[in-house]
Amino acid sequence: MDKWKTLQSNYIFKTPFGNVRKDTCELPNGHLIESYYVNEYDDWVNAIVVTKENQIVLVEQYRHAAQDFFLEVPAGKPEDGETYRDAVIREVREETGYISEKDPICLGEYYVNPATQTNKVITFFIQDAYLAYDQNLDATEFIDIHLVDIDEMEAKIYAGEINQLFTANAFFMSKSFFNGISKD
Question: pTM for the whole thing?
């Protein structure tokens, strides 16, 4: 199987949040796609954060595109050349005030939507977290913290109370680490 050839590429617009690029592509069979739109976004990190009391730390915030509030895992983008590890530690601390003496465990790097987006989400597992600081939010962040028992998280996902894909994905990716933690 051969890759597509990009014959031309032009930016429709560029913003601090991401760019939209219009490519003209030639497929392996010679077919042309004159307007293939690509969203260029930065990679981001997120984490399942489990407290010493076996609760998962979630954040609730308004998401304008969906016009609703969502329960999510803490997440954000690396800043100023940060490693993914350092970025997730900073984001968790800023959004929730929680920290851990244990290093975050990287569960994997996954493309968000490789058909139209360039970015990846890097998911971590943080255990034995405890509240050590007040939130330190950006001017555009309004975040409430929620603690959910490990044993209740899956039911909340299946009931639709937690319906953000990257939160559900992070939870299911981290389940193997719950052995010996969960009350089941």
Answer: 0.91
Angle formed by the axes of helices 150-158 and 165-174, nearest 10°: 140
**CA separation for the pair 5, 105 (Å, rounded):** 37
Cα dihedral across residues 78, 145, 71, 99: positive or negative: positive
Tokens read off for 119: 């970015």
Alpha carbon distance 123, 110 (integer Å):
8
Taking 70 as the pLDDT cut, the residues of the chain under it are 179-184
**CA pair distance 174, 161, nearest whole angstrom:** 19
Distance CA 142, CA 61 (A): 6
Structure token pair of residue 118: 């360039």
Q: Which helix (H) or strand (E) holds 30?
A: none
pLDDT tens digit sequence for 133-161: 999 999 999 999 999 999 999 999 999 99
Indicate the helix (H) or strand (E) that contains 155.
helix 150-158
Could you tell me which of 126, 71, 133 has the C-alpha nearest to residue 104?
126
Domain 44-178: top CATH class: alpha beta
Q: What angle do CA 50, 51, 54 make, to 5 degrees?
A: 80
Show the DSSP H helices in 23-140 as ranges. 84-96
